[in-house]
Design goal:
By secondary structure, this protein is an alpha+beta fold. The protein has helices at 9-16, 26-30, 34-43, 64-87, 94-102, 106-121, 125-146, 149-160, 169-184, 191-221, 237-249, 262-271, 275-286, 298-314, 320-325, 333-364, 376-387, 392-395, 401-416, 502-519, 540-549, 552-558, 570-580, 584-602, 612-623, 639-642, 652-670, 675-686, 694-702, 709-714, and strands spanning 223-226, 256-259, 419-423, 434-439, 445-454, 464-469, 472-474, 477-479, 482-489. Helix content is 56%, strand content 7%. The strands form 3 sheets. The chain has a 5-stranded mixed sheet with strand order 3-4-5-9-6. Helix 4 (64-87) packs antiparallel against helix 5 (94-102), helix 19 crosses helix 22 (552-558) and helix 24 (584-602) crosses helix 25 (612-623). The structure holds zinc ion. Zinc ion (ZN) binds next to helix 20.
Length: 719
């Protein structure tokens, strides 16, 4: 299940810290005659209030040609706002500097809010081309602000008086974040150091690109070709047909080709009876970019790790992980290792039990071998099928999309008193989109919730929450939120309404958990409201929300057979729940092994170039990983951390999962709809956003720190 938020956090933060002269896009201006530019400007719907109910963007009026001029003008506006802050003859104060920066860039926020939502949910080639053009404009604009020495001088002046300013908690955090943001961009470095950083950044950018290119080449080049049909035993007809199609594409007509791409390797290692072929494909996958050829990533990644240490130390940090984690809830590598240390032994012990179970099956079948890593998926699937065979077709009739959505709304109503009123007369960007007004129990309006449920071309895969407009309060003007959940569910057919699998229904609860974080937000500063929390915290309000769906009391409210109205039998629910805990020793261990690799690579405190293979083996040996399990990603194909943005951050999933499980335990202790617990969760978590240190907020809600026990129980790692 692909669950994540596409919170506009990074962009909003980047923009909040942005601005000055230099990046105006001359190209788009000289290309058009002045009169025409004038006409576009006048008609550009971004340049006036929408005039719609709740100021929802009037989507029908927005044309592709409006975006570039809108971004141009929005950037220029913020540049002027920043210039005015610098030119202020009064001494720097919290209001005339820190708040003024925070309140700048309104137009940019609104243009980017619409554009980046639609490039994910309803895109086309023209918009993709615009995105390519806008991206360097925005990063130059952002650099112009965060590297502006004069602006930093004022921020620093305010920061130096922080203890005498009598700031509220949110204000103090805004000041701290603003100051730290400048420092982390290099504001305190001298010219020579800044030059070094620029050089390191450019080397890193080349190497991370190379890492990704090598991995892609290696993933595309490996294949196994099967000519003998008997070798396909165990595979389903659809998998065999897909392999035949791949063979035809690759000029091997009449044969079957399997590759290391997920849709091909996953069913093969799970179902193919031929052990030697499973091994060949599995090793093809785990040896990617480690074959000693021109696409080998071992040296590339060791150099990336080395350059990252150099950069972190120039900035005054011990290691890259120290640099990254400063902005996260975890704060230090030691804190992450501490958490991993608590979970690892239990997960590993469980994995060993799973291996023993599999070995029993192997032995009973007369297989004369020891279970290996390429046997794990195959025997795990055999055991799963024997113990909990559940057919999805049995559960789907109980999870019609409409009744599940009503179940989500009713759950939120019972917890927070909010009510929902659908509007069919508001502008939308596609006919699929439904719009709901959200109200407090006393009738006070809260915000708009947009639901965009169905799969269609032009929408990227997965499920996410985002905001068109965040809640905030600027100079006394209250901005009410406009929040969207985007999913990729199948459409209703002529004979059936849209029916969801159990996982899809759970995703609807998950994403609405994010939506509540945005809707119930009650803060002052845009960079702190809603889901603007650290990455290792942001998933937790949504993970909590998934738990209600599993409660019999909640299922009885909505999980009714779409034809007969019968509530889903408890026996079926029990079976699904039991199955969800199956194989969690493996799942947790392979995930954590990858997390450990990430952390080990990025906790290095010197720039020596490591032997990648030795380094990896050493790390995993120290932690006692068993031979039957490989890390979810080995170093040479760990794209999240060597070419994506997750370096020193792969732990975040389990970190926020700890909060999620512990928070729901509070509801279990006090009653799943206990009014006081719900009120505390709303006040300290959902409404507070990132206005305060996340751990302090959690303590205010829970009265203590999160414990790992509920997580271990929820994964079936402990009774
Ligand atoms: Zn999520």
């Amino acid at each position: 299940m692909n669950k994540f938020t596409l919170a506009p956090v990074s962009l909003a933060l980047a923009l909040a810290l942005t601005g000055c002269n230099s990046s105006e896009n001359k190209e788009s201006k000289t290309a058009e005659p002045a009169a025409q530019v004038e006409k576009v400007m006048l008609a550009n719907p971004f340049f006036a209030p929408w005039g719609t109910p709740h100021e929802i963007p009037d989507f029908a009026k927005i044309k592709n040609e409006h975006y570039i001029p809108a971004f141009d003008k929005a950037i220029k506006e913020q540049q002027q706002e920043i210039a005015a802050i610098i030119a202020n003859v009064e001494a720097p104060t919290f209001a005339n500097t820190i708040e003024a920066i925070e309140f700048s860039g309104n137009l940019l926020d609104s243009v980017a809010g619409v554009f980046y939502n639609l490039t994910s949910a309803e895109t086309n080639d023209e918009m993709k081309a615009i995105a390519k053009k806008v991206s360097p404009m925005l990063s130059a604009h952002s650099d112009d602000i965060s590297l502006n020495a004069e602006l930093f001088k004022r921020v620093d002046a305010v920061y130096q008086q922080k203890s005498s300013l009598n700031l509220t908690t949110a204000q103090a955090k805004l000041l701290e974040d603003s100051y730290v943001g400048f420092v982390r961009s290099g504001a305190k470095l001298n010219e020579q150091q800044k030059e070094q950083i620029r050089k390191l950044n450019s080397q890193l950018s080349d190497l991370t690109l190379k890492f990704g290119d090598n991995l892609l080449a290696e993933t595309n080049s490996f294949e196994i070709v099967i000519a003998n049909k008997a070798k396909l035993a165990g595979l389903s007809q659809s998998v065999i047909e897909a392999a035949a199609a791949t063979a035809t594409e690759r000029g091997q007509d009449g044969k079957w080709v399997f590759t290391t791409h997920r849709p091909s390797i996953t069913p093969f290692t799970k179902y193919a009876d031929d052990r030697e072929l499973r091994k060949a494909l599995y090793l093809g996958y785990t040896n990617r970019a480690s074959n000693g050829n021109e696409f080998d990533n071992k040296k590339v990644l060791a150099e990336i790790a080395s350059l990252r240490v150099q950069k972190a130390q120039l900035m005054g940090y011990k290691s890259h992980a120290h640099f990254v984690l400063e902005e996260r809830v975890a704060k230090t590598p030691a804190a992450v290792y501490e958490l991993l240390n608590k979970i690892w032994p239990t997960a590993l012990a469980k994995a060993k039990v799973e291996v023993a179970d599999m070995q029993k099956v192997v032995d009973s079948e007369g297989g004369n071998f020891k279970v290996a890593a390429w046997d794990y998926p195959y025997y795990a699937e055999k055991i799963r099928k024997a113990r909990y065979d559940i057919d999805e077709e049995q559960t789907r009739p109980y999870f019609a999309l409409e009744s599940t959505l009503q179940g989500v709304f009713k759950t939120a109503q019972k917890l927070y008193g909010i009510t929902v009123k659908e509007r069919t007369d508001l502008p939308t960007y596609h006919d699929d989109v439904r719009t709901f007004e959200i109200y407090e129990a006393d009738g006070t309006y809260i915000g708009l919730f947009l639901a965009d449920h169905y799969v269609r071309p032009g929408k990227r895969g997965g499920a996410w929450m985002n905001s068109y407009r965040k809640q905030y309060n600027m100079n006394g003007t209250d901005s009410t939120p406009i929040i969207v959940n985007v999913l990729n569910y199948p459409r209703p057919t002529a004979s059936e309404p849209a029916l969801l699998t159990f996982d899809q229904a759970s995703t609807l609860f998950h994403e609405f958990g994010h939506a509540l974080h945005g809707l119930l937000s009650d803060g002052k500063y845009r960079s702190q409201t809603g889901t603007s929390t650290p990455r290792d915290f942001v998933e937790f309000p949504s993970q909590v929300m998934e738990n209600w769906m599993l409660q019999p009391e909640v299922l009885a409210m909505f999980a009714k057979h779409y034809q007969t109205g019968e509530v889903i039998p408890q026996q079926l629910v029990d079976k699904i729940q039991a199955a969800s805990k199956f194989n969690q020793g493996f799942a947790t261990t392979e995930y954590m092994a990858a997390t450990l690799l990430d952390l080990n690579w990025h906790s290095l405190e010197d720039a020596a170039i490591r032997d990648s293979e030795k380094f990896e083996q050493q790390a995993l040996k120290e932690w006692g990983l068993i031979d039957e399990i490989d890390p979810r990603y080995r170093s040479t194909y760990f794209a999240h951390i060597f070419s994506g943005g997750y370096s020193a951050g792969y732990y975040s999933y389990i970190w926020s999962d700890v909060f999620g499980a512990d928070a729901f335990a509070a509801f279990e202790e006090n009653g799943i709809f206990d009014a006081n617990t719900a009120k505390a969760f709303r006040t300290h978590i959902l409404s507070a956003g990132g206005s305060e240190n996340a751990l302090s907020l959690y303590r205010k809600f829970r009265g203590k720190d999160a414990s790992i026990e509920p997580l271990l129980r929820s994964r079936g790692l402990k009774d």
